[in-house]
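Example for tutorial group B:
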């Protein structure tokens, strides 16, 4: 939940930061969901942390549907097993599932575009929106310029220190306004891509 009043906005941002993940938005959502489950799905806890109880309940419903589907096809998979504390198996699975939604960083550690067409353009100008085409990322499919959405936990990394941006990311959706924004962005390891492309 993102309130409109400034004082409430700051409280909400502080609450949401407690669940953030350096790996990105989807791991942050998992942190929220797991914390909510530990409270036994407490509505007051969700409200206090500026989270939508209704959305959390909807996530539970979807998870149950997926669990039932896995059980019904009898694939020999136990939907209650988790790979935690290992995160790579989850991130690899996410990468495979969102394979058509991969974006690659197109600037180097000094904030200069690796593409010769943008070699004299700084990251600071692109990030503040000097031009639509000067985005820090390009989609792997279609080479579309894309920005990290301001609601992403990775946006703060980009604002504070461009060198912390992941070289590759998957996104759950593109939002098009004055620019193309990636939402639901999660950092991934680019070395996984050849294997997942053929698997």
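The residue assignment follows.
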């Amino acid at each position: 939940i993102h309130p409109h009043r400034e004082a409430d906005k700051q409280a909400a941002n502080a609450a949401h930061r407690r669940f953030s993940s350096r790996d990105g938005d989807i791991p942050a959502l998992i942190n929220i969901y797991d914390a909510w489950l530990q409270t036994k799905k407490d509505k007051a806890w969700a409200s206090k942390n500026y989270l939508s109880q209704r959305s959390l309940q909807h996530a539970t419903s979807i998870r149950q549907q997926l669990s039932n589907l896995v059980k019904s096809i009898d694939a020999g998979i136990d939907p209650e097993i988790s790979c935690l504390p290992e995160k790579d198996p989850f991130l690899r699975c996410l990468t495979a599932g969102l394979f058509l939604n991969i974006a690659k960083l197109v600037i180097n550690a000094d904030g200069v575009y690796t593409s010769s067409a943008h070699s004299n353009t700084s990251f600071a100008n692109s990030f503040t929106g000097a031009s639509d085409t000067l985005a820090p990322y390009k989609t792997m499919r279609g080479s579309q310029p894309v920005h990290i959405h301001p609601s992403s936990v990775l946006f703060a990394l980009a604002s504070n220190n461009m060198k912390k941006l992941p070289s590759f990311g998957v996104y759950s959706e593109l939002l098009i306004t004055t620019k193309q924004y990636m939402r639901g962005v999660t950092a991934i390891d680019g070395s996984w891509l050849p294997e997942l492309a053929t698997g």
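Helices lie at 6-17, 25-38, 43-48, 53-73, 88-97, 123-127, 153-160, 193-198. Compare this with the pattern of hydrophobic and polar residues in the output above.
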